[in-house]
Amino acid sequence: MSKDVGVQIGTVAALVRSTFLVNAVYANSAREYGLTQQQGQLLCVLMAQPYGMSELGAMLGLAKSSLTGLVDRSERNGLVQRTPDPQDSRAVRVSLTGEGAELADEFYTETCRRVEELVSGLAPAERDALAALLGRVVTDNKVPSVFMEPDSTH
């Protein structure tokens, strides 16, 4: 049994610890689908639409060289493809392949289910309050939409 059962923790500790919790769920889910955590993030981002490399770098918080390596590996695995950007002949857009879209959908659905389980002990009103508060935090801090709400992807 955890030593802090029934102990109120502060906002900072709660946010940091919840980040570790969600990251662990995300990493375990990615591993089970044969992905790295970053590949899982890339697939989830690309579910919405294709993006240019600079947009992807900004959304995923990756330096150009790290993003290039990630896209290269994902392309070799048949998950993403690069196509010329119709607006800029020097740039490319990255999109999911058919195989990548199928894997992204399965990974995304399972990861959402697992994250939802984390709050299964909360009443519906508590979940709504948590979502509203965290939604304000991410909106106020201009966090990119790297992971969409399950009902908004299809």
Describe the 3D structure.
This protein has 6 helices and 3 strands; from the N terminus they run ααβααββαα. The protein has helices at 11-32, 37-48, 53-60, 64-76, 98-118, 124-140, and strands at 51-52, 80-85, 88-96.
List the helices and strands and how they pair.
Elements: H1 11-32, H2 37-48, E1 51-52, H3 53-60, H4 64-76, E2 80-85, E3 88-96, H5 98-118, H6 124-140
Antiparallel strand pairs: 1-3, 2-3
Helix pairs in contact: 1-5, 2-5
Instruction: Write the element-wise H/E pattern from the N-terminal end onward.
Output: HHEHHEEHH
Q: Strand order within the widest sheet? A: 1-3-2
Rough outline: elongated
Rg measurement, Å = 17 Å
DSSP strand tally: 3
- Portion in beta strands: 5-15%
The number of helical segments is 6
Percent of residues in helices comes to 55-70%
- SSE-based structural type: mainly alpha
